Amino acid sequence: MASFVYNGGELEVSEDMKKAFNTDGYIVVKGLWREKELSVVEEALTGEDAITQYAYGNEDKDGKEARMCIWSYTGNDTTGTIARTRKMAYTAEQLIGGEVYHYHSKLMMKEAHSGGRFHWHQDYGYWYNFAFLFPDMITAFVALDKCDEENGCLQVIRGSHRCGRIGHGVMAGQVGADESRVKDIQTALDTVYVPLSPGDTLFFHANLLHCSAPNTSPRRRWALLSCYSRADNKPYDKVICSEYRPLEMTDNEAVLRQGVNCDLDGKEITMKVNNEYKVVRP
């Protein structure tokens, strides 16, 4: 697994990082978010007016549930500031090869003993149907808790982004990649676990196959994900998530400088009601 260490200041995206991303479909940046920053994030996500009030559950085929909340447009709260920092957005630009804008962000919540699995899928397996013509998209997955095999950390198939988009279908309420095709790919490419410590950040390509097992541990497993599309890959229609808006990046100290902010004005939040999705504006 290609991992790199953040030592503060501007994150220099080296040629080695770009090469690893292009070859493997992902890289890990260790320590991208510090403990005191994560404390601000934790308070912003668990306060009375937190965005988690809009969370909904997704059941896997075994009936276990992982909760999530998802929003378009950054807004100005703590979660939006995270997505706009240069160490997230500019790094995404350098890896995906061009100006990016914020497509959406989400909080993934696997609670202790109960957090369900996510089946093998590609993000572009979903996003293809949301009016994007190309897979020039990238996700920054920030571990808020320790992620390991016991509590359902991500697994990826290294290099699978080079296989192109794979057919997806509904699996017990989730959208998953064609299982027979995934098995064939696993005979040619390595399947690897991606353990992360709090603050570590995984950047991965929209066509990288990934999944995660249920959380059977006594520890929760929360992660905050910011998803970006290249600006020249604007959606041709607005389907649930955001249309193109230029991304106003901020410096890497912005979260600490701002502090806890739960003002959700400016976001569009996707909710699941009676198995149908609707968008609300707080």
Q: Any idea what the CATH architecture is?
A: Sandwich
Q: Could you give me the name of the CATH homologous superfamily?
A: q2cbj1_9rhob like domain
Regions with little confidence, pLDDT below 50 for 5+ residues? none
Report on the biggest sheet: 10 strands, mixed
Number of strands: 16
What is the CA–CA distance across the termini? 40 Å
How helical, in percent, are the residues?
10-25%
Overall geometry:
globular
Provide the number of structural domains. Answer: 1
Protein name: L-proline trans-4-hydroxylase
InterPro entries: Phytyl_CoA_dOase-like
Cofactor: Fe cation
Pfam family, one: PhyH
Task: Give a structural overview.
By secondary structure, this protein is an alpha+beta fold. It has a single domain, classed as Jelly Rolls. It contains 7 helices and 16 strands. The protein has helices at 15-24, 35-46, 78-84, 86-96, 123-127, 179-188, 254-258, and strands spanning 3-5, 26-30, 56-59, 65-72, 100-110, 118-121, 137-143, 154-157, 168-171, 174-177, 191-194, 201-205, 210-212, 221-230, 268-273, 276-280. The longest helix is centred in the N-terminal third of the chain and has 12 residues, at 35-46. The protein is globular, with a radius of gyration of 17 Å.
